[in-house]
Design a protein that fits this description.
The chain is an all-alpha fold and about 80 residues long. About 60% of the residues lie in helices and about 0% in strands. The chain has one domain (about 10-65). It has three helices and no strands. The radius of gyration is 18 Å and the shape is elongated.
Length: about 80
């Protein structure tokens, strides 16, 4: 999918730097990596909020049966 975005100069300079130094193959690849991190952060926050809501509730056993989807608790807060 092709799209156009406007970013502040400091962000553009960062994208240029990580492209030129070979960290990412293109500005698009760097932006995609950033979007992936945002999705993961939001998903971890959502899971933590849901877990807090369900912990101790009458539906806790339902949560336990659905929580084994590949995300293991690390003990660290991502939010």
């Amino acid at each position: 999918m092709k799209m156009s975005v406007n970013v502040p100069d400091v962000d553009y300079q960062f994208l240029e730097r990580v492209t030129v130094d070979g960290t990412y193959s293109s500005r698009s690849a760097a932006v995609s990596a950033g979007v992936k991190l945002l999705r993961e952060r939001d998903m971890a926050r959502d899971y933590a909020e849901d877990f807090a809501r369900w912990r101790g509730s009458e539906d806790e056993s339902l949560w336990e049966s659905a929580s084994g989807d590949g995300i293991e608790p690390s003990g660290e807060s991502l939010v």
